[in-house]
Amino acid sequence: MCDSACLHHFYYKHPPHSFLQKSRKSMFEVKDDSVAPLHALPQVGWSGEEVITAATKVLALGKYDWREGRLSGGAFSGKDDAFTQLLTKIYRLYALSNPLHSDIFPGVRKMEAEIVRMTLDLFQGDQDACGCMTTGGSESLLLALKAARDWSREVKGITEPEIVLCYTAHAGFDKGASLLDVKLRKVDMDPVTCKVDLRAMRRAITSNTVMLVASAPQYPHGIIDDVEGVASLGKARNIPVHVDCCMGGFLLPFMKAAGYPVTPFDFQVPGVTSISADTHKYGQAPKGSSVLMYRSHNYLHHQYFVTPNWPGGIYATHSVPGSRAGGLVAVCWASLLYLGFQGYTNATKAIIATARKLTQRLKEVPGVEIFGDPLTSIVAFNTTEVDILKVGDVLSGRGWHLNFLQYPSGLHVCLTGLHANDAFVDGLVHDLKEAITEIKNNPSTLKGVGKVYGTAAAIPDKALVGEAAKLFLQCYYDTLPDPA
């Protein structure tokens, strides 16, 4: 995923033939002269102290400090030093373990199974419910789609599979559909509620539909789709229904206990066949873990990959990787145990309270409009007073790293425990008001721009978005700047 401000103000300022060179130059502008790029192995290995010194310098690169609490999402933990120290100790214990070899590392297998079972319990899964761990939300969505595609091929004979989802559903579904050769049939959201338009979804269903999707919540606007409505459509037609709870996975199960009840979203809803929940977001585990759950093994079995005829032996895996980092399993397990139900409830209460307060304060700013009725941690907004993308530019200049939206344009804030305080709300609202005033007073100083998902990148010509993003990705692994 593109995730850098180095594309900011790029394409509309430079002719296409120079875009690659300009993008690479922007990459190197974040480098520090004291951190020389490495192009080959050192002839003699560095000492441990030298490695730590170099790593510390590299850590300081970039203009955003996530600890300041001005980053939308991105970092979901970090306030509790004791928790961080615990995770580093646990990872050290399991740093060299590999879940692929469960006979050699049975403890990691036990941890992984317990993570899945604990998460199933949160989502009202019964004894038939099952699941697996993945490396993140995108892999969870990919595997859920694979299971639905293969189940539909075996049970219903579908050979030209299609998935029906709202265009606000996560781009991970687009990636999965591309990799698995599944056709996407995207439908509109309701313009008022920002939920998936159920009537449009019903019309989009065909005899080739292998999955319906509900988001809880969806990423752009933080809105929870009508899960019961989508599940009802699927159940009536025997179509698998996936609830993408990657963002809300470790908020929604605790909201009732935190005093913020929500409509049903889990396996208690008839027709829901699979759910994804990211432990590395509000589960506060280090990046690299998610849980994918199924109502029964009837679906999970179609996720597996098995090849029995390889000369190297019988090769079978639950997920895309073969070897995986057992240390990530261990720290995820440790996170769940350390925080516990009460810890997650307390975190949820603080985050949701702050999100509700921010929503109310934003509504009081003249011209600011909130997308839908956000009930969880994401608050998205626009303004009728000035170009919202110009507002985003000004806020970026003031140290805020918000997420830019398109179709329609907007900004969103993904609140985490780092933001659960009045100072965050006061600071953002104050700077937002000043940004609007600044743009009104100087309307010609900024240019409206579009944004690529996950970046501060500006591309005015949407036909060029794909190619421009690929050029940026091409620069990602560069260590040498263009020759003069």
TrEMBL record:
The terms describing its cellular component in GO are: endoplasmic reticulum membrane
* One GO term (biological process): sphingolipid catabolic process
Q: Which residues carry this modification: N6-(pyridoxal phosphate)lysine?
A: K281
Q: Which Gene3D superfamilies match?
A: 6.10.140.2150, Aspartate Aminotransferase, domain 1, Type I PLP-dependent aspartate aminotransferase-like (Major domain)
Pfam families per record? Pyridoxal_deC (PF00282)
Subcellular localization: Endoplasmic reticulum membrane
Question: In what pathway does it function?
Answer: Lipid metabolism; sphingolipid metabolism; Sphingolipid metabolism
- Kindly give the membrane topology term recorded for this protein: Single-pass membrane protein
EC number annotated for this UniProt entry: 4.1.2.27
Name the needed cofactors.
pyridoxal 5'-phosphate
What GO MF annotations does this protein's record show?
pyridoxal phosphate binding; sphinganine-1-phosphate aldolase activity
Q: InterPro entries per the record?
A: GrpII_AminoAcid_Decarb, PyrdxlP-dep_de-COase, PyrdxlP-dep_Trfase, PyrdxlP-dep_Trfase_major, PyrdxlP-dep_Trfase_small
Major place of localization?
Answer: endoplasmic reticulum
Q: Which UniProt keywords apply?
A: Endoplasmic reticulum, Lipid metabolism, Lyase, Membrane, Pyridoxal phosphate, Sphingolipid metabolism, Transmembrane, Transmembrane helix
**PANTHER family from the xrefs?**
PTHR42735, SPHINGOSINE-1-PHOSPHATE LYASE 1 (PTHR42735:SF6)
Q: Which family does it belong to?
A: Belongs to the group II decarboxylase family. Sphingosine-1-phosphate lyase subfamily.
The name this protein goes by in its record: sphinganine-1-phosphate aldolase
Organism, per UniProt? Answer: Scylla paramamosain (Mud crab)
